[in-house]
Task: inverse folding
């Protein structure tokens, strides 16, 4: 890998600046999906299931259709069959028969959409829903995954209760039935997760030997909560048809990638979809490529021949807006007397919801293998179907849960072995090209591109004053107890192979095209700073074209999984190198000599031996148009994505078109890490507690935009703290009814929940396997923060006081009773 | 009133995040007092002075000092909650022009930000408050 300073010199990259979208956000002129208006726009409302699992026995919409203002009604039988799709490499992906549909005649959770009505206003649409004549045949349902695994337990779907792996290579996972034995449950007792059969497993090393040789073996069970994404912007969508093309305004994490997703759901061509998504009001993984509900207004608009706005209420969003799945984990961990993890047996059950298999359980194993570097490890896991809302990836899916489950175990091991918890974190931390499970087909492990977690722990401990805090005498302030905690988090932080695209216009400006979603992490703009640096131009001559596929876009990653800064800074650099080469070739054709005789600087391309001999970018752009071919986009590289090719064709003739795929090498998998430190004060009389101090130290490579970086560290830490302290689902298990449908029933942290003191830092060592050196930072703070707060609470209250998150007042009060072990909620995923 | 402002008057700067007084995204000033527009009937504000985010910037397009401070600190991430936070802050500063950071946090605690970057939000709002004081 070439050193980054041979390809570009960071000048703007790494500095704060005002992003081009911030002013509109502060003046009310930023238009989110629900802010758009269209002449004759109808409003769509949804009839949703009152039951957790049922079949619609009878449906009559005639009375509703005859009501004043009602223009169209959509039912499930009018939905097109989802199309098969193809991967980037051309491999066929068969449409799954078990996928979630936009509407259904067999709802699998309370709140699932069945019928959609479009009317002239919201009141008329709501009144029409009341007039729909519908009856249901109730079916067996299950809310708690462990109930479904019991002998004779109910299945969430008529054909099974778990996701099973493919029978043969090339086949898809399928839904089947898995039950544990009564003995499995009896053996485990009340406080430990039974360990029956699982759907999948992998291992490396000899776990049995690792555990048998350990100085300390801990056998712990822990439950993490279901937590809804709760983006403040619901997934309202406006759709209209114009000249045979579908136009949609949606919130999404990936503007360009949402187009093929919608094309698949609607079984139509990507060429006939125009998608507008300039601003997305929060996503956190819940709007990766929008969601299937967006096809409802599209189909209604066609039927009513009028624009249709699906206005999703907060209550509807709680149903269809995605959530992080609860994991119930049992961990057997063996430690040497120095605190080194010799063997880890990780067994997880996931509350999957009724539809697509979520990756959290499997990813928890992968992240656990990286974050704690066990010498031997076995992972076993099962995705259990429940009649609860559809899950989706949420910031650090699986990564948060494994930190929450295993971080406190490391701290407990430290106490049992009379070691410093920081030292136990450190001795087990990944370093350099750390190995990552699961094993490959040949039994070897993958490797991280780089890891500097020990450095993050050292720097963080110094800033936080860890040792000084450990040395303090115990707090004796009445009923208040003090605790400190340290933990680490990690997650995927980069992908490769996307395209960069920009135009140098005849006015000498750089128009930077991007298909990245704009959901607030500012990656859509931040990665373009690399172009400005690589082209040696001031930021003021750059403008960004984003948020509307009518403006041509390159194939870009979705802004999820913290991949964007890594993936798209590489793509931006690739396009910049293409532009530099084209500029030099144009100069050589214009002024004589060879391309290598020229260099770039000060918005000009000039001879190496005489800076006076050269042409401006503006002149070169004009010359590119005259030359045509590859210079102005009439020819396109063969290796870019087909959607990029379409965009390049649309831009042809507008100036010098720079386009390239990221073909930079990368050896290994890209991950970022965070070390977090927390101090809490707990009042054991009231059960209330405060996070009085918090520090997050990142290992995420080169910082591209420090303010945005800090914002991700703070915001995503807070997301993790919410899991530790206050957010979960409540259910009426008897009726399968969710009780937490609104913010006040499962409240995200407010400004008053933020730690009283918050600091952050970054190791800042560039990743050697990517030319810009940057890795993503959005995901890993969540797990580190959640685990650090849990560790601090345990430090204050003592071991074995709780075994589920969040830790709320009831758990603190129960934990404070001498000799008790907190059991509120037991092992149920929901309480 | 939130529906009236957004649907009938086209003032879509205020957002409807929860429909009923839980998130503060629809905060406007009614006679200088911050209120959730989703929880107020339009007919109840006849004759009152309503200020939405659209009315905050100067008529020449220049930003209000509060907006300027927030802009310079890159105060918000997705920005969906920003108009509500700004209006809540403006209302609070009318009663307490020189708040401490903690006081301001209490002043805007009726507003949710799901991006939860509250550290930067408070820093930005405090900068805006400072600019307002300087005029």
Result:
């Amino acid at each position: 890998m070439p050193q980054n300073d041979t390809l570009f010199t960071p000048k703007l990259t790494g500095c704060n600046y005002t992003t081009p979208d911030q002013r509109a956000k502060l003046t009310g002129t930023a238009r989110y999906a629900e802010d758009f208006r269209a002449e004759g726009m109808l409003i769509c409302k949804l009839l949703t299931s009152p039951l957790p699992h049922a079949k619609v026995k009878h449906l009559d919409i005639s009375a509703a259709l005859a009501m004043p203002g009602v223009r169209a009604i959509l039912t499930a039988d009018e939905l097109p069959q989802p199309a098969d799709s193809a991967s980037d490499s051309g491999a066929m992906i068969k449409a799954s028969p078990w996928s979630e549909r936009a509407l259904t005649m067999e709802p699998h959770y309370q709140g699932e959409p069945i019928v959609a009505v479009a009317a002239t206003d919201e009141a008329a649409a709501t009144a029409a829903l009341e007039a729909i004549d519908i009856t249901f045949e109730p079916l067996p349902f299950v809310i708690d995954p462990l109930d479904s695994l019991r002998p004779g337990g109910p299945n969430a779907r008529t054909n099974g209760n778990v996701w099973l792996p493919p029978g043969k290579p090339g086949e898809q996972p399928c839904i089947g039935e898995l039950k544990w034995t009564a003995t499995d449950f009896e053996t485990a007792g009340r406080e430990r997760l039974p360990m029956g059969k699982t759907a999948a497993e992998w291992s490396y090393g000899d776990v049995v030997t690792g555990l048998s040789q350990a100085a300390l073996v801990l056998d712990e069970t822990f439950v993490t909560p279901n937590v809804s994404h709760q983006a403040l912007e619901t997934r309202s969508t406006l759709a209209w048809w114009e000249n045979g093309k579908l136009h949609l305004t949606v919130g999404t994490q990936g503007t360009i990638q949402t187009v093929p997703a919608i094309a698949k759901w609607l079984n139509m061509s990507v060429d006939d979809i125009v998608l507008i998504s300039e601003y997305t009001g929060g996503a956190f993984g819940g709007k990766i490529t929008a969601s299937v509900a967006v096809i409802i207004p599209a189909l209604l608009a066609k039927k009513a021949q009028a624009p249709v706005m699906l206005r999703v209420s907060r209550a509807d969003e709680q149903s269809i807006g995605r959530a992080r799945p609860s994991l119930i984990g049992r961990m057997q961990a063996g430690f040497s007397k120095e605190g080194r993890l010799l063997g880890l047996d990780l067994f997880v059950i996931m509350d999957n919801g009724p539809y697509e298999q979520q990756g959290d359980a499997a990813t928890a194993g992968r992240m656990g293998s990286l974050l704690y570097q066990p010498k031997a490890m076995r992972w076993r896991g099962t995705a259990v179907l429940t009649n609860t809302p559809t899950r989706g990836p949420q910031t650090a899916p699986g990564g948060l849960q494994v930190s929450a489950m295993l971080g406190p175990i490391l701290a407990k091991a430290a106490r049992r072995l009379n070691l410093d918890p920081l030292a136990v974190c450190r001795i087990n931390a990944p370093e350099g090209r750390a190995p990552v499970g699961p094993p490959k087909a040949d039994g070897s492990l993958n490797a991280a591109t780089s890891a500097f977690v020990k450095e993050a722990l050292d720097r963080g401990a110094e800033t936080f004053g860890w040792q000084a805090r450990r040395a303090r005498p115990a707090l004796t302030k009445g009923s208040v107890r003090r605790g400190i905690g340290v933990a680490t988090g990690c997650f995927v932080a980069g992908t490769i192979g996307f395209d960069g695209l920009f135009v140098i216009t005849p006015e000498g400006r750089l128009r930077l095209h991007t298909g990245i979603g704009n959901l607030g992490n500012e990656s859509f703009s931040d990665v373009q700073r690399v172009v400005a640096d690589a082209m040696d131009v001031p930021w003021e001559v750059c403008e960004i074209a984003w948020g509307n596929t009518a403006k041509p876009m390159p194939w870009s990653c979705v802004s999820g999984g913290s991949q964007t800064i890594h993936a798209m800074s590489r793509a931006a650099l690739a396009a910049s190198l293409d532009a530099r080469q084209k500029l030099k070739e144009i100069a050589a054709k214009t002024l004589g000599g060879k391309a290598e005789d020229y260099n770039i600087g000060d918005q000009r391309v000039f001879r190496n031996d005489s800076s006076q001999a050269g042409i401006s970018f503006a002149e070169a752009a004009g010359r590119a148009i005259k030359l045509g071919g590859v210079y102005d986009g009439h020819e396109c590289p063969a290796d870019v994505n087909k959607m990029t090719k379409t965009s390049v064709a649309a831009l042809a003739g507008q100036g010098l078109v720079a386009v390239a795929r990221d073909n930079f090498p990368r050896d290994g998998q890209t991950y970022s890490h965070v070390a977090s430190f927390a101090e809490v004060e707990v009042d054991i009389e009231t059960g209330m507690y405060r996070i009085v101090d918090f520090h997050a130290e990142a290992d995420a490579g080169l910082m591209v935009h420090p303010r945005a970086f800090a914002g991700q560290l703070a915001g995503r830490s807070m997301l993790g703290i919410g899991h530790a302290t206050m957010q979960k689902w409540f259910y009426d298990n008897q009726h399968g009814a969710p009780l937490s449908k609104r913010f006040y029933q499962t409240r995200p942290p407010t400004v008053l929940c933020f730690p009283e003191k918050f600091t952050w830092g970054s190791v800042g060592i560039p990743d050697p396997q990517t030319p810009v050196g940057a890795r993503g930072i959005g995901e890993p703070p969540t797990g580190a923060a959640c685990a650090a707060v849990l560790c601090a609470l345990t430090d204050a209250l003592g071991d074995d006081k709780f075994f589920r998150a969040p830790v709320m007042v009831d758990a603190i009060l129960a934990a404070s009773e001498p000799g008790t072990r907190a059991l509120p909620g037991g092992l149920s995923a929901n309480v | 009133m939130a529906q009236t402002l957004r649907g009938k008057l086209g003032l879509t700067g205020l957002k409807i995040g929860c429909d009923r007084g839980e998130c503060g995204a629809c905060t406007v000033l009614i006679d200088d007092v911050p209120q959730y527009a989703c929880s107020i009937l339009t007919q109840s504000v006849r004759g009152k002075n309503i200020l939405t985010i659209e009315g905050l910037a100067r008529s020449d397009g220049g930003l209000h000092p509060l907006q300027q401070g927030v802009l310079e600190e890159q105060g918000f991430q997705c920005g969906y909650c920003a108009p509500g936070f700004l209006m809540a802050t403006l209302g609070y500063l009318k009663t307490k022009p020189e708040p401490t950071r903690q006081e301001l946090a209490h002043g805007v605690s009726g507003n949710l930000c799901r991006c939860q970057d509250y550290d930067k939000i408070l820093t930005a709002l405090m900068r805006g408050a400072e600019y307002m004081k300087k005029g």
